[in-house]
Amino acid sequence: MTAPTFNLDAALALPSNIRFGTSTWTYPGWKGIIYHRSYKSDAAFTRNSLAEYSSFPWFRTVGIDSFFYSPPSSATLKHYVSQLPPSFKWASKVWEEITTPRYPAHPRYGAKRGEKNPLFLNKDLFRERVLTSFNPEEIYRHTGPFIFQFPHIAESEMGREEFFSRLHTFLSSLPNEFRYSVEVRNEEYLVPSYFQILNEVKSTHCFNHWSYMPSLREQMMRAAGAGGLTAPFLVMRLLTPLGRNYSEAVEMFAPYNEIKARNEEMRRDCLTFISRAIARGDETFILVNNRAEGCAPMTIDEIGQAAVQAHP
Predict the structure, then answer these.
(1) Cβ contact 30:59 at 8 Å
(2) Cβ–Cβ contacts within 10 Å for residue 158, how many?
(3) Nearest to 275 by CA among 227, 216, 209
């Protein structure tokens, strides 16, 4: 396979408030595409490749998805910081103990699988186990939004109004020096009261292109119809093709070293989002997953070029 050619001049011309990045960075399939250095082992690659990732001109952020499974220590974050240029900021997923109302029936949850989670939206747990690690100044200045990724929640588990009430109480209790973005996977949550709650607590919606959510355009229209979002930052994640589950996307797109299926509708909607973000001037985080089209860096390069052409 011939290595792709990236338009790095376009990357440098992209307005400074637009931050493209990928969902995590430790993909061996990107060797020869993004990664050209030698690493002594797979462990060394995982631990130290963020420096090479963050030097790639298109990448101004990264989604740290691993924190969904376990909150980071300050030592881990300091090691990441040691690899970053001064202007780089990450977007951190929040530990699933905070965002999962019931543990999935998966072996990794052990005795807890299938059980109700008593720690769901526990503000004290979030402050003590998550935020504390991000407080040191050298870490804080690289910290972009926290992303609360909620699973699809069945009505039998928790009604929409109960979720809204608990979300509002939780977000209202958090320190306002950090930024918070909410990713829901229930279409019926995208109603005016949801967006109004986010505005009240100075948080934002994470526009997500995910298997069973409405299109990005539809999400933007619903937010606009509710009066818009007022937080001074924006977040979008391009995850999986609509109508395909995660496992199907993995099988379709691995090993993530080429674009296998361009999603023109997703791209158009993302460009609309970027145009609005440029007009607003707000710091904007756009995270692209390999499972969106097959190779996140190449998707970013092509969408980014189109954005620069549209905003010379």
Answers:
(1) no
(2) 15
(3) 216
Tokens read off for 200: 């009240």
Range of lowest pLDDT (1-5, 50-54, 66-70): 1-5
Residue 94, pLDDT above cutoff 80:
yes
The residue type found at 228 is G
Backbone angles phi, psi at 69, to 5 degrees: -95, -25
Give whole-number Cα distances, 229 to 77, 95, 258, 281, in Å. Answer: 30, 25, 35, 14
Kindly report the pTM of this predicted structure.
0.96
Cis bond upstream, residue 241 (ω within 30): no
Cα–Cα distance measured from residue 231 to residue 212, given in angstroms and rounded to the nearest whole number = 26
Work out the pLDDT band at 1, boundaries 50, 70, 90.
Answer: low
Mean pLDDT computed over every residue of the chain: 96
Per-residue pLDDT tens digits for 234-273: 999 999 999 998 899 989 999 999 999 999 999 999 999 9
Report yes or no: 95 and 145 within 8 Å, Cβ to Cβ: no
Measuring CA to CA, which residue among 200, 90, 197 is closest to residue 146?
A: 90
Is pLDDT above 80 for 3?
no
CB atoms within 10 A of CB 170: 18
| Separation CA 244–CA 213 (nearest Å) | 11
Token look-up 């549209």 returns: 310
Residue among 74, 79, 1 at smallest CA distance from 33: 1
* 3-state DSSP percent of the chain in helix, strand and coil, to 5: 45, 15, 40
Among the listed residues 33, 17, 15, the one whose alpha carbon sits nearest the alpha carbon of residue 25: 33
